[in-house]
Amino acid sequence: MKDNPIFSKHKWGRVFAIVFSLLLLTMTGTGCTPDDQPEPYFSVIPNFQQVHGHHWPVGETLTLTIDDPMTKETPDFTATETVIEAPWDPGTASWVEFKLYEHHHDPAQLVKPGNILTLSGKRHSKTHIIQPLFVSRVDPELQQISGTAEPGSQVRVDPHPNLPDTYVVVTTDADGIWQASSPDWALGPGFGGDATQADEDADTTQIQLRLPTINASPEYAFIELSDFSYNTEITLSIEPQGLSKTVTTDPQGYAWIEPWQWVQLQGFKLQPGNVVSVIDHFAGLSKILELESLKVQAVDIELDQIYGIGPPGRMLVVDANGQNASVSLEVKTNADGSWLADFSGILELEPEMLFSARLPDADFDTTAAPFEIGQ
């Protein structure tokens, strides 16, 4: 076999060729060149107010800039983070996370459609314009997700990214409305996926898919919101009283409200028949819960059973929560509304445990009836 003409003229040429090959092997860990590695890309997640970068070299410091074309400042925001091994695939994948709400007093302004994001390292610099992508409805009854985006654009909807071939690609209509569904989906509390729009360079605007829920208790007078947009203003209304208040979710999309603490509601009590409406202003999403009559009447510690009353012929969830163990049982109310949850052989009930019953509607919003022994 003939020598490589580049290195054959001098004896040191062959040595250099060997050293160069070993250097490439060391750089990549596989023997392939850096150009063979996956190209870096990043995603901006407006409803989580985060930016995630993938495939940059571990240990590299990346700079994120965000520019709002409508302001005089350029850029409007700058932050740096260090690339780490991806927690879900250490040794193979890399990841960097920018939590914008930890760096800016009004992170919602940083993730507006039209803002220009640039993520730069030593070798790569990527730019993406945030797209006007929104998810306005997750319907577990119809197994359907809908929202809005740029008219005539495509949206990739994948509520189950850990399962093969469950994503759907849809095209928005002339008004920018899109709707996606699949018989393979199982939309419900706790599911997690995304709706995505990618640019030509594979960087994306991504909306994390969750099922926002309302959990409210007439007896204990609280309203609990879960899985709404992060750090976002939420308008809460209670009818037929015509009461309304704006609250802000925390960095996990959660809010706890006790209406009786509002100045205009001193002495007010939630009651069955009240309608609680919630509007997530970032997503343009709304949820409605009509409170129902539900009560835990007794907990039998000796028999490990919980008794109560609710609407006849309905499924509900009964919880027993202790420091070392928690169990939830699904039971159906009888024709007279009575129900019994039997934990015998499953969990030994103890007086210090927290107990509750939860009655879900078709949209998984729940009327709750907490119970503590001795209260």
Write a brief caption for the model:
The protein has 375 residues and is mostly beta strands. It has five domains: 1-36, no CATH class; 38-129, Immunoglobulin-like; 134-209, Immunoglobulin-like (Sandwich), CATH 2.60.40; 213-290, Immunoglobulin-like, CATH 2.60.40; 295-371, Sandwich (Immunoglobulin-like). The chain has one helix at residues 11-28, and strands spanning 41-45, 50-54, 61-67, 77-82, 84-85, 94-99, 116-120, 125-129, 134-139, 144-148, 154-158, 168-171, 177-181, 193-198, 204-209, 213-217, 222-226, 233-239, 243-248, 255-257, 275-280, 285-290, 295-300, 305-309, 315-321, 326-332, 338-342, 354-360, 366-371.
Descriptive tags:
375 residues, mainly beta, Immunoglobulin-like, seven-stranded mixed sheet, 42% strand
Provide a descriptive summary of the structure in words:
It contains 1 helix and 29 strands. It starts with 10 loop residues before the first helix and ends with a strand. Helices cover 5% and strands 42% of the residues. With 375 residues, it is mainly beta. The longest helix is centred in the N-terminal third of the chain and has 18 residues, at 11-28. The strands form 6 sheets. Strands 5-6-2-1-15-14-11-12 form an 8-stranded mixed beta sheet, with no helix packed on it. It has a 7-stranded mixed beta sheet with strand order 20-17-16-29-28-25-26, with no helix packed on it. The protein has a 4-stranded antiparallel beta sheet with strand order 4-3-7-8, with no helix packed on it. It has one helix spanning 11-28; strands at 41-45, 50-54, 61-67, 77-82, 84-85, 94-99, 116-120, 125-129, 134-139, 144-148, 154-158, 168-171, 177-181, 193-198, 204-209, 213-217, 222-226, 233-239, 243-248, 255-257, 275-280, 285-290, 295-300, 305-309, 315-321, 326-332, 338-342, 354-360, 366-371. The protein has 5 domains: 1-36, no CATH class; 38-129, Immunoglobulin-like; 134-209, Immunoglobulin-like (Sandwich); 213-290, Immunoglobulin-like (Sandwich), CATH 2.60.40; 295-371, Sandwich (Immunoglobulin-like), CATH 2.60.40.10. A hairpin with a 4-residue loop joins strand 9 (134-139) and strand 10 (144-148).
